Amino acid sequence: MEKVSNQQIIEALQTQFGENSIYGLGESHGTLQLTTSVDSIVPMLHFLYQHPILKFQFLTDLAGIHFPDAKGQELGVIYHLHSLENNVRLWIKAYAPIENPNFPTITGLYATANWMEREAFDFYGIIFEGHPNLTRILNVDDMDYHPMRKEYPLEDATRHDKIDELFGR
Amino acid sequence: MGEINSSTFFIDRFQKRKNMSDSTVNIIEAPAGVEGQGFFATSLDSLVGMARANSLWPLPFATSCCGIEFMSTMASHYDLGRFGAERLSFSARQADVLMVMGTIAKKMAPVVKQVYLQMAEPRWVIAVGACACSGGIFDTYSVLQGIDRIIPVDVYVPGCPPRPEQILDGFMEIQELARKESTRRRNEPEYKALLASYGIE
Amino acid sequence: MSEVALVTNPNVGLDKSQKGGPYVNDLSTLNLGPTHPATHGIFQNILTMDGETIVDAEQTVGYIHRAFEKIAERRPFYQITTLTDRMNYCSSPINNMGWHMTVEKLLGIEVPKRAQYMRVIMMELARLADHIVCNSVLAVDTGALTGFLYVYQWREHIYEIYEELCGARLTTNMGRFGGMERDFTPVAIEKIKVLLAGLPKGLKEFEGLVMRNRIFMDRTQNVGAISAERALNYGFTGPNLRAAGVDYDVRALNPYSSYEDFEFDVPVGTKGDTYDRFMVREEEMWQSLRIIQQALDNLPEGAYHADAPHYYLPDKQDVYKNMEALIYHFKIVMGEIDAPVGEVYHSVEGGNGELGFYLVSDGGRTPYRLKFRRPGFIYYQAFPEMIKGSNLSDAIVTMSSMNVIAGELDT
Residue C342 and residue A116: Cβ atoms within 8 Å? Predict the structure, then answer.
């Protein structure tokens, strides 16, 4: 079986979903990456899962990201897919505005996305609609902000001995 | 080795033991006292101190990397059992020494405090590793910057992670404390003030 | 922290002797709390139990969340290596090398062959260390303490090799971008040879104690099984997945750092139960020994680091004499070197599975976003499914065999 090429993936997706639903195509060290809209995530992932040749049936990772400068598209989610049989990886990115960071959940398709989405919610405040248990996972439950966003500092604001003057900040 | 002559067997072994250097056999030092034929008189405090120091039951509160160095300390190469700490107690009510090894996050802080409160007097605390002493390299929003923010600590063992020899050294410091400390420690005003400063009755 | 609370059902006043009447079993809640002798690391499971059988489990993690990803956005690239040490701290060199390979992919540095072989040796030693811990502690959880003590002595030998190469035992911070920081000394090679000669005997002794032991087999066979489809859906990788029957090994599928030069087998189990996971790890240790032997025999001559003066600290003698080296030294240490813009994902086969680093760089000296794909975090989600319907003691053994390391779970 010949190796599935990135061009094949692009063509299959464009035939199914139309050219307009896929933008921001690029290749990063051999891995295809594409950006799509929030609404087409679930159909696209289902299509890639069930495709007889492509078979992207392994979700390697789900990363949240925050771009404070991209107005209207501040919070993003990057899905890392992997086709074990074809040994091909694929990144699908989608962005949503910070006022309304709603993404559909993919826990129905990949059971592994459960905690990954909780982690993205915990760190960035991205809401995954339909998630069975969208609560904080790594931070304390009563934390009221989403710490990985760029506006929040790394250090604890209430500490009193490791002050910034001593550390040259 | 030859055949064992029963009448001289034990004498020979004792002779051998006297000729052994301290590096091979380490016998606990007896406290200062008066020795005579068939008796040894010393103060009750030093006897109790010797017994306490050499039979401490640690509670290994191992959270991260320092916990693996503790496992190496418990293993046969750097045996902690030599110091009388062979019996690890995971139940706080039966433990003497709380060895906090590893990073304590703010989520874990109430658990540490509760475990400390469950311990019965006399109790000591070792903070093993930079994270337990002061937060270590993790100066972040989620890490407690040292367990001495919530519980009183007796011995700090720095290192990231400390070598097993350092952990043993810290343990020997606790042994010194156990040997020398008064049995009436919990009633002393300084101790009560210390606990009150942490909000512990 | 493991108090038992009886949760009684609301129909408790009803007469249970009524024929056809409602007779609901009283379920009890058991807190397998964050501090527990047999959970390796701090994570909490609140188990709902029907007598001795587990009905449900609710997990809480994050008790050792140290915000690695946020710290990584603050630190220059070479300072992040110390963070990667502390993720899977039983096999730190694998994390270090994985991170270095990720950055080398971003920077486009080509690592010389000798350095690649040295990296392979260190990674396989780390894998040995990790599997020794997992398997011996699994035996301890079933009550067999002797195996742990025997085999841990060999782990001290591995620590001595680390010390010889980088100075530290556990959190090694080994290697640099472009290769290793120093060549193998003759003492290090001698120690590796001694290990290769002695560890097989130690492993055989351990296996003789545990592997065909009736009690161990009864405790671990058909316990905590997971099927291959569920495992893939849960994102399992590493020995846990291979025990379920899928032969996915990053070293074999996407070879990195000259793994394609070595001949090794990828052991695969059948049922995905605890015994299979133990056996897969045991067999992987033998394969690791094989790889180290091949790497040591065929260690090529050459440089132990790439010629990348922008990222690799120059020799101290050169810094004192050579102007260029001084400037590079200054720029690297003060963090004046900027990385190229781009994003890269690289994964290595860690002790637990596919350890991935997703790095987004915006051209500054620190990453813009660094996401660690931790295998422990991902497969621990499946734990409730694996223990449903089994006993509490089976749950402990299953957790041990999965090798969940808290540092990796919570970053």
Answer: no
- CA dist., res. C353 & res. C237, Å (int): 5
Tell me the H-state helices in B119-198: 130-134, 164-180, 189-197
The Cα–Cα gap between C404 and C57 comes to: 16
- CA C281/CA C283 separation, integer angstroms: 5
**C63–B108 C-beta distance less than 8 A:** yes
Architecture label for domain C68-410: Orthogonal Bundle (1.10)
Residue-level pLDDT at A132: 92
Q: How do residues A34-48 score in pLDDT, each as one tens digit? A: 999 999 899 999 999
pLDDT at C8 over 80: no
Q: Give whole-number Cα distances, A46 to A26, A128, B153, C342, in Å.
A: 22, 17, 55, 28
Name which of C284, C316, C243, C291 is nearest C131 in CA terms. Answer: C284
Residues in C touching A59 (Cβ below 8 Å) = 235
Q: Within an 8 Å CB–CB cutoff, is residue B179 touching chain A?
A: no
Strand C369-373 relative to strand C354-362, pairing: antiparallel
Domain around A13: 6-129
Q: Name the token pair of B128.
A: 């093993």
d(CA A93, CA A73) in angstroms, rounded, equals 11
- Residue-wise pLDDT for C85-126, tens only, equals 899 999 999 999 999 999 999 999 999 999 999 999 999 999
For residue A15, give the CATH number of its domain. Answer: 3.30.460.80
> Interior CA angle at B107 toward B101 and B109, to 5°?
55
| Per-residue b or e along C147-182, where b marks 16 or more CB atoms closer than 10 Å to that residue's CB | bbebbbebbebbbbbbebbbebbbbbbbbbbbbbbe
- Indicate the residue of B77, B111, B140 with minimum beta-carbon distance to C34: B111
Distance between CA atoms of residues A168 and B19, nearest Å: 59
- Which residues on chain C are in Cβ contact (under 8 Å) with A137? 61-62
Task: Decide if A114 is inside a domain.
Answer: yes
Q: How far apart are the first and last CA of chain B?
A: 63
pTM of the model: 0.89
Inter-residue contact C291 to C262 (CB < 8 Å): yes
Nearest in space to C34 (alpha carbons), one of B96, A112, B100: B100
Q: Which of A140, A155, A161 sits opposite B140 (nearest CB)?
A: A155
**Domain at B47-166+173-197: CATH code:** 3.40.50.12280
Tally of domains in chain A: 1
Minimal-distance CA residue of chain C relative to A138: C62
CA-to-CA distance for C227 and C246, rounded, in angstroms?
10
Per-residue pLDDT, averaged over B22-42, amounts to 80
A112/C381 Cβ within 8 A: yes
Q: Where does residue A10 rank: exposed (0-12), middle (13-18), buried (19+ CB within 10 A)?
A: middle
Which residue is closest to B109 within chain A, CA to CA? Answer: A140
Residues 284-343, chain C, touching B (beta carbon < 8 A): none
Establish if B139 touches chain A: CB-CB under 8 angstroms: yes
Q: Is A160 on the interface with B (CB under 8 A)?
A: no
Residue A10 lies in a domain: yes
Cβ pair B52, B108 in contact under 8 A: no
Q: Which residue of C has its CA nearest to B143?
A: C66
Chain B hits for C89, CB-CB cut-off 8 Å, are 64-65, 68
Q: Single out the residue of C100, C101, C94 nearest to residue C124, CA to CA.
A: C94
How close, in Å, is residue A18 to chain C by CA atoms?
Answer: 26
A85 touches A55 (CB < 8 A): yes
Residue C1: pLDDT band with limits 50, 70, 90 = very low
ipTM: 0.92
User: In degrees to the nearest 10, what's the CA dihedral of C341, C343, C347, C350?
Assistant: 70
Domain boundaries, chain C: 4-60, 68-410
